[in-house]
Structures
1.
Amino acid sequence: MILNHLGVVVSNLTKSEDFYCRALGCTLSGRWQNDELKAVNLQCAGLTIELLEYVSPSQTYTPAGVINHLAFKVQDIEAQIERLNKLGAAFETVSPKIIASNKKIIFFHGPDGERIELVEEN
């Protein structure tokens, strides 16, 4: 596994995107939206930072200013889920979701509750 991106919850996506680009030298690499949130992907020295603005917060909403998750890129998400289940990982869903660009994602929690995402890009 390799670190894929960090997801940071923000209160105003436009304002935060501007700050990260102008103040920190990040560059825009992607933008997406669904019913629950708006997001941009920024590149910063080889690391992707995913800024997330919840437009319709759910019960699992993370407050602004908090790192929402660490994401790791994997080759075979189903094999990783099986391996992590044997280690006692607590997954948020039973199976991966398919999102934009046919990516498969799933979230689970580390021993101290930290939120971790697996990403398989096809």
2.
Amino acid sequence: METKEKIYRTASKLFLEQGYDNTPMSHIARELGLSKAGLYHHYPSKESLLFDIIDYLNETNFIPILKEAEKISDPEKRLIFFLRRYSEIMTMDASSRIAVHEAGKLKPHHSKIVKQNWRKTFTLIKDAMSEMQASGKAKEISSTFAAFAAIGMCSWTYYWFDYSRKESAEELSETFIEILLRGITKGKE
């Protein structure tokens, strides 16, 4: 395993266990068997390490989903695909929590990059909802609020999802799709 990957995995584990603010670089270095100077050789700051972790999670998990979803012309299928894949990723690995929960700790230049990716997610969902409304397939509700609700529903899963029961991930994603697209109350028959 490469040094940067080992640092990434160790720091991610510690950030998940203790939180970003409660994990000093000296603790990360100790866990890695490195000196603090040795860790700083690879990362000039803890914030730059956090950015690399979030950027890695975005590039490997979230961006590929967005790119695939953007290829789907039918807005309902696009929305279903995105919700299914995004909620599955949030249940596969708790480290996704870092990308959501700790992103607010980034400096402005790093935060801007992360926010651009989140903006793409928001736009994908909002546009799909708007297209469905325009075709008469969706209720006339705020597509902005609906997009935030969908993102929030999936993004905050890590606070309560039991990662020891990953077999329930598919059921969870299907439940999210049902809640968003069909609503939680019965319509008129």
3.
Amino acid sequence: MDDRKLQPLIREIRIQNERKYAEAAYFFVLEALDFTIFLEGRGQKPCEGRHISPQELLSGLRRYAQEEFGPLAPYAFRSWGVQTTRDFGSLVFQMCEAGLLNKTERDKPQDFANGFDFEVAFQEGESVSGT
């Protein structure tokens, strides 16, 4: 879905959730999800329709942020109101409630808690391959 179609929906999600997170945070999560789906499907059958677990998404978020922002990722996250990986869970579940993303009955927002420490994960020279 293109950004022009997503923008009104994301704005509505933000309004319903008291604008806790910047619009960019929602778009980043969606982009990181696409990135994760691509990575998970590499070297095998496409994973269309395959569920991405919270742990897989956190790994993909980390890898995508490393590629996009490098050691500046924690600063970008904080500018969006994202302080910990638990906030990524909140973003995901807000989008699930709005029908933008899907979840299984086993998925819980707390699955995103303690995923990784922003400061450690994005230290200069820190590699995320294999995670």
